C-alpha cells in the first residue's frame, strides 16, 4: 500500500511535466510562426524601398523624368519630359505652394508626427484607413516609388522612403522633385505643365495669387479641376483658403501689404 501511495505523486509529476513540455513546444512553435510571419512582412515592406546609394539627386531626378515621360503619353502635358529647376520657379509661387501644402517643410525631418497622430486617431475611431497629414517629403516619396493604395503598410513604406530621401537629399532638391512630379489636374503633372495649362505662362512668371490658385488645385487636382477651372466655381471655403495663403505670405514678409490688397481682389480668368 505504501508503494502504491508513493507512486501517485510520481505519476502526477510525470503528467505535469508532459503537459508543460507540450505547452512549451506549442509556445515555441507559435513564436517561430510569428517570427516567420514578421520576417516575411518586413521583407515585403522593404522590397520597394530604394537603397540609399540609389537616392543621389541625379539618380532620383532621372527616375522622376522617366515617370514624367510615361505619364505624358495620352495626357494633357504640353512639356513632355521637361524638367523645371528650382531656380526657374518664381519665389512667390514656391512659397504659396509650401505654405499651403506643408508650412513647416524647411524645419521638419520629413514627417509631421503631430498631424500623423491625429489622422491615426481618426482612423481608429472610424475603423477605416484614410491617408492624410502627408508632408511634401512624404508626397514626393509616394509619387516617385509607391502607388495610390491606402493601407497601413503603404503608409509605413512611405515614411521609411521619406527618411531615406531626407537623409540623402537637401530640402531644395526634394522640393524640386516634388514640383516636377505632383499632379495639378487629370493627367496633368509637373509645375511647368500646370503653369502653361492654367495661365499660359512659365513658372518664372507666376505671381502669388496665381501660385495660391495652383496650390488649391493640388489638394484634390481632379475634383478642383472640374469645379475651379472648368466651372470657375470655387466654394467659400476654397476662397477663404486662397485668402489665407496670401495673408500668411504677407505676414511672413514674402509680399508687401500693397501686393496683398491687390491680390485679394484677384479672380481666375482662363488665358485667351
Automatic annotation (TrEMBL):
InterPro entries: Glyco_trans_51, Lysozyme-like_dom_sf, PBP_transglycosylase, Pep_trsgly. GO terms for cellular component: membrane; peptidoglycan-based cell wall. The chain crosses the membrane at residues 21-43. Gene3D superfamilies: Biosynthetic peptidoglycan transglycosylase-like (1.10.3810.10). GO terms for molecular function: pentosyltransferase activity. One of its GO terms (biological process) is regulation of cell shape. Residues 76-249 form the Glycosyl transferase family domain. This is Glycosyl transferase, family 51. Keywords: Cell inner membrane, Cell membrane, Cell shape, Cell wall biogenesis/degradation, Glycosyltransferase, Membrane, Peptidoglycan synthesis, Transferase, Transmembrane, Transmembrane helix. PANTHER family: BIOSYNTHETIC PEPTIDOGLYCAN TRANSGLYCOSYLASE, MONOFUNCTIONAL BIOSYNTHETIC PEPTIDOGLYCAN TRANSGLYCOSYLASE.
